[in-house]
Records
---
Amino acid sequence: MKAQIPAGERTLVLVLAAIQFTHIMDFMIMMPLGPQLMRVMLISPQQFGILVSAYTLTAAVAALAVAFYTDRFDRRQTLLFLYAGFVISTLLCGIAPGYNELLTARAVAGAFGGVAGATVHSIIGDAIPENRRGAATGMIMSAFALSSIIGVPIGLVLAAHFSWRAPFLLLVAVSVLVFILTWRILPPMRSHIVAGEAHRPLEQMRSVLGTANHLRAFAFMFALMFAGFSVIPFISPYMVANVGLKETDLPYLYLFGGLATAFSSRYIGKLADRYGKRQIFTLIGLISIAPLLITTNLPPAPVWVAICASVIFMVFVSGRFVPAMALVISSVEPRLRGGFMSINSAIQQLGLGAASFLAGTIIGHGAGGTLTNYWLVGLIAVGATLLAIALAWRVEPVA
């Protein structure tokens, strides 16, 4: 049966997708800014890796800290509070005077943004039935494509003409508008709160962490995040240093890759609803091995070749997350979903941070400023992908 999102659900999903758009752009914009930041701030690939990891690691810590308290509150109130903190911390990124201040601001932004992202997925789990959850998740994940099509290219153009600060300041302006939209449209979200039942954080912790299916879902997401983000943060620096692109060419990679992903994410979500989330994840995951290897071994090439490689990479490597997230959202009961998704967010951020940190320690500088050992990072990503595929078949949907 073809899963279509009804009009009422579509409005809710579009609001949540707008939040994800800004959250994902905030994270993504750091990666293509890598060449400029390393040049302007005189930092090494290792320091840039730490700059990326700081966002994810603090997101993980924050998610763990609030995991077993979020289910006692209206999800609307929780999301608005977290998103306000995200906007303020992103402003701090844009006005940071140096590397240390930017590192601190990125850490604060990660703390708010990471938990806000988990709350978005909790709302999807509460409000969207399981048979339409893949399609809804596809719409949420298309925010990645939209940020690639609109946000990152515009941010890179502003960075090229002004400075690396300009993309963050633009994001603050957009986020303020999204906050107002969310405040006006998002309804109260209290269906997960059981009337008359006292909230017991320790008991909820035992229920979430004591369920084998939950632990398998966490391991699955860690492996998947590690498989993608060991490669993703260094694509732009590699394209400039090794493939021979100019920094002004980078927006085209994100523009065309994002255009392709805008269509593919939603289509993959519908396929997951129709044919099974694990089956579609396995298919997309196996196909994604090719673009992982191509991207990390690409020799000097014309811009059009790099664009083609970027399109294939974004469609399949990013496409894996649509059925994966739909599967994970469905693996937990509604009453535990807020805490579960917060822990899941922490696991994702730990996987992402560990991947970018490890990649930063493996990648080095060669003759003429080229990056070395990126091919080895690609092989590690392939291994993590195969592990994620195996783990996906151990995760059972329950709600």
---
Amino acid sequence: MTTFGILVGGGPAPGINGVIGAATILARRNGARVVGIFEGFRWLMEGSTQHAGDLHISQVSRIHLLGGSILQTSRANPTKKPGDLEKVVAGLRELGVDHLITIGGDDTAFSARRVSETAGGEIRVAHVPKTIDNDLPLPGGIPTFGFETARENATRVVSNLMEDARTTGRWYFTVLMGRKAGHLALGAAKAAGATLALIPEDFSEPEIRLERVARILEGAIVKRLSMGRPYGVAVIAEGIGERIPAGDLAELQDVERDEHGHIRLAEVPLGRVLRHSVRDALARQGVKMTLVDKDVGYELRCAEPNAFDLDYTRDLGAGAVRALLGGRSGVLVTRQEGGAIVPIPFDEIMDPGTGRTKVRLVDTSTDAHASAWALQVRIESEDLENPKRLEGLAGVIGKTPEQTRQRYELAL
């Protein structure tokens, strides 16, 4: 009997259960057995097949409406230590799995590719891309599943903080998940009408100095004060923290890393560091302002999926089964324009320089990005060149226009 294995790797994202449910239903209707493997590759890497069980249609028919993952998830990395991949393949064979569906982000995609290669064609492998970061290179600008639900919920949070800021006369520094890419931060900030958004892609230099980030935030606060608005919300992508030199952000030197070697950005107190830096800088200019730092991310990952992701993930789960039954293997399952399910070979999404999955960053050349930038409030060249605007800024911090210009040139 054909046997499908399904497992989930990486962080949670809304819609995982939709993939599991649809894949199980379609595989069962095609006469196949379906085995759910708990906690990703974790137990298989340890040589155990005890953390797996058969999935039936009656168990999964309504799970697509739920957040989280009925199979749980883990970041266990079978490519890190010699022998782990062989244990995974041996465990899958012991379970009778000859068709494997993995659900995860770029790291799980890389692991799936290596499992496919190690199995030598005996196990067909299809990967369903999942991440609220939206940083996998899907064609045509199609989002990764879970992103739109996460953005919708993050937009509500940022919108509520905007109203709280206006009501209480304060500023919020809101740090949003995203690792290297700023899709979630920019998408939520734009939709909610946040005062400004800071994403890694807006900085062309390899390293982002902490002083520059702080000066941009300080400049936005001063500009808003010159407009008679002593409040605002800055949305900051967590990926900025990854590019700040360790010397600027001492906490990075001892911060925990995950199994794939990535800094656990949730452990870096980026918002707090920026709040202290900007608060102290404003105080030296004679400006007193209440600043609050707020991290947003974990509360988005297991939200109940919205209608977009409900529909999307059921297509992906069914598409993965069809691809594998059709003889495809070593592929990323995508839904493209017009609703077409297109399996893409792993090799086409790999960076030849690193051998790992390519990362999709925010395209700062688009009209959408230009609109987001134009709707924000931050120090711009015209503010420093227009005498009237410059005088307004200078009046807030009690400096001469020339001193003010020199101070905020770093914010450009």
